[in-house]
Amino acid sequence: MERLKDKVAIVTGAADGMGEAIVKLFAAEGAQVLGVDLNAEKLKEAHGAATNSIKLMDIDVTADDADEKIVGETLSAFGAADILVNCAGVVEYENTEIMRDDNWERTMDVNLNAVFRLCRRVIPEMRKRGGGRIVNIASINAYVVAPGLAAYAASKHAIAGLTKTMAVELGPDEITANFISPGAILTGMTRPLMDDPETKALFESFSVLPRMGMPEDIANGALFLASEEASFITGQGITIDGGFLAKV
């Protein structure tokens, strides 16, 4: 089934985990995809050589004019932009009282400022196509928090507010904007932590289901929001957390 046939997508954070899974699923569903990531080596390991359906771009999303360069590369490769998935993100664990400015600023730059700039730049391209889909990756920490997550939680709360506002602003142009809040997902970042039995048990306890979340679970949610089936859904947050928020 080609649910994204003739669509062009941009996916950041494409070298690993959720972003990698989203790129692969979107391409399998008929989209042409620009996969963006800071890590050129991991990007190539994840996706191999560029194909007719997947192009790769290594760039820091916080770099000067990164939004212009990313959208420009998309237009050069595919001629349009219909879908944007902002998946790139960082987390720094540091309590508010001792948090260093550079940690706060880096978190906001990657998780919020780069998202805003790329959304702002791609909107006119979507309007030219008669509509579009924006999917931002937030977190369950947009709803619940823990010590040491001040910067991360603040950035994800902000993503929720930004996305809802864009939905209201862009509705008349048939551009939808939604966000996904993942729970504990097994990725390249979290997999090494599973070697510790206590940490593994903690992560598994975040789900009421007998498993952790997988990147493909998030990719399936992103595919739905990017598809025609979700054309009347905008300004919403979809939580994919194995039921964690239901029990807290």
From TrEMBL:
<keyword id="KW-0560">Oxidoreductase</keyword>
<dbReference type="InterPro" id="IPR020904">
    <property type="entry name" value="Sc_DH/Rdtase_CS"/>
</dbReference>
<dbReference type="GO" id="GO:0016491">
    <property type="term" value="F:oxidoreductase activity"/>
</dbReference>
<comment type="similarity">
    <text>Belongs to the short-chain dehydrogenases/reductases (SDR) family.</text>
</comment>
<dbReference type="InterPro" id="IPR002347">
    <property type="entry name" value="SDR_fam"/>
</dbReference>
<dbReference type="Pfam" id="PF13561">
    <property type="entry name" value="adh_short_C2"/>
</dbReference>
<dbReference type="InterPro" id="IPR036291">
    <property type="entry name" value="NAD(P)-bd_dom_sf"/>
</dbReference>
<protein>
    <submittedName>
        <fullName>SDR family NAD(P)-dependent oxidoreductase</fullName>
    </submittedName>
</protein>
